[in-house]
DNA sequence: AGCCTTTAGCTAATCACGTTAGCTTCAGTG
DNA sequence: CACTGAAGCTAACGTGATTAGCTAAAGGCT
């Protein structure tokens, strides 16, 4: 076997770090090669294309996000689990905006794409968290989608610099979590009459 | 003055239509030129660069979105205004996913960028709608951000094909609107103790 | 009506990437 | 100590954005 300086994994890791610095849109093979102290074409010994590289970053990101959220929810339930999970996700996106963008930009390449189970693990964590609210079974899917929407929306708006006014974004986020929490608790108490 | 077949405005309009068809990421000067029955370099007589073209699409999109939302809210208040505004926005995004992506991808180029007032008009509509809920003044900014987050998050997730499970997405959206409506009404009734 | 200026659109050329082809060299194996 | 295989390199190609310079037609002016 030869030198073995770079590997697909190490290249992906470096690309993920790069993308968090310069933004997902500014990822280029040349820039990555420079960071790795190598000439551009050499990268193709480890990844087949820039598209594949982006996809690898996406899988990495979704997996990391799944871990972070699962760990945050671990051992908590109800409001605590919601707050911890949501904060964990926001923190992850703030620390890894490029990775998060990569994960959002990708689409499963096929039925056995590892991106699929990685995504399912994230959803499973949210589902586990929601189960603590005793919602009507028919409402769970809607609650899940609403939850995903707020968290994803807040994270992307924040990452895009969408919150201009000089009111604390942290405060807005805890307000948001509280808002969702109250709604979920009320919905559970009220039963299915929330849905129209 | 010469022929005047194309104008900056007509090029932008064609680009916006194109982007809704092929996706914002797939916008290319060559493809647009082909649609307009012109050679690629000719486009530079009307727009200075692809970046500027993308920005023009963004301004157009944000302006259109502002109009659509304002019109929907017109004459309604409270729950009705929320539902109408939210539905109008979702419809706009579904019909113009490329434009919406362009608007999200852009960043103001300066203090006199028309994108800024266009964005402010959207925010003003949401603010007008929220004013119907009699929220505590200190809460309004958080409610606004939460509202923007859910709507933006839902729209982008839907556009990205993020809702896989075969439960009606329409139904989820009305559930979401209802969820927000109930929360806002409860928050108004309860006063500032929602915020922590 | 006929000239003149202005400029839309064209062709040819340049530049920046992503990607491919083929060569070279070193690490580990026999 | 030669041998093989893959890492990394240089050279080359293709595509898409952009620029330079030419051509010609439209509208104004006399």
Explain briefly what this protein structure is.
Two copies of one chain form a homodimer. Chain A is mostly helical and 196 residues long.
| Low-pLDDT runs of chain A | none
How would you describe the oligomerization state of the chains in this entry? homodimer
Structural class designation of chain A: mainly alpha
Task: Kindly report the greatest chain-chain contact and the residue count on each side.
Answer: A-B, 39 and 39 residues
Tell me the total number of β-strands of chain A.
0
Q: What is the rounded Rg of chain A?
A: 19 Å
* Count of helix runs of chain A: 8
Please characterize this protein's 3D structure.
The structure is a homodimer of 196-residue chains. In chain A, helix 7 packs antiparallel against helix 8. The mean pLDDT of chain A is 94. In chain A, 69% of the residues lie in helices and 0% in strands. The longest helix of chain A has 24 residues. Chain A is built from eight helices and no strands. Chain A is mainly α and 196 residues long. At the A-B interface, helix 7 and helix 8 of A face helix 7 and helix 8 of B. Chain A binds a DNA duplex (30 and 30 nucleotides) through loops.
Quick tags:
homodimer, 196 residues, mainly alpha, 8 helices, DNA-binding
Task: Spell out the blueprint of helices and strands.
Two copies of one chain form a homodimer.
Chain A: H1 8-22, H2 29-35, H3 50-73, H4 78-95, H5 97-105, H6 115-131, H7 137-159, H8 169-190
Helix pairs in contact in A: 1-3, 1-5, 3-4, 3-5, 3-6, 4-5, 4-6, 4-7, 4-8, 6-7, 7-8
Chain A binds a DNA duplex (30 and 30 nucleotides) through residues 1-6, 28-30, 38-42, 44-46, 49-50.
């Amino acid at each position: 076997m030869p030198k073995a300086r770079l590997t697909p994994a190490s290249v992906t890791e470096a690309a993920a770090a790069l993308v968090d610095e310069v933004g997902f849109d500014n990822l280029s093979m040349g820039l990555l090669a420079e960071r790795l102290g190598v000439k551009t074409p050499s990268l193709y010994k480890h990844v087949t294309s820039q598209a594949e590289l982006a996809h690898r970053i996406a899988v990495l990101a979704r997996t990391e996000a799944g871990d972070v959220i699962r760990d945050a929810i671990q051992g908590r339930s109800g409001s605590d689990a919601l707050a911890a999970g949501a904060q964990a996700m926001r923190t992850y996106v703030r620390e890894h905006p490029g990775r998060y963008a990569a994960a959002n930009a990708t689409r499963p390449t096929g039925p056995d794409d590892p991106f699929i189970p990685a995504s399912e693990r994230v959803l499973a964590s949210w589902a586990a968290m929601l189960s603590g609210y005793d919602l009507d079974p028919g409402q769970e899917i809607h609650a899940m989608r609403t939850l995903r929407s707020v968290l994803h929306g807040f994270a992307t708006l924040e990452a895009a610099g969408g919150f201009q006014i000089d009111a604390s974004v942290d405060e807005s986020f805890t307000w948001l979590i509280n808002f969702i929490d109250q709604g979920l608790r009320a919905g559970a108490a009220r039963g299915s009459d929330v849905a129209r």
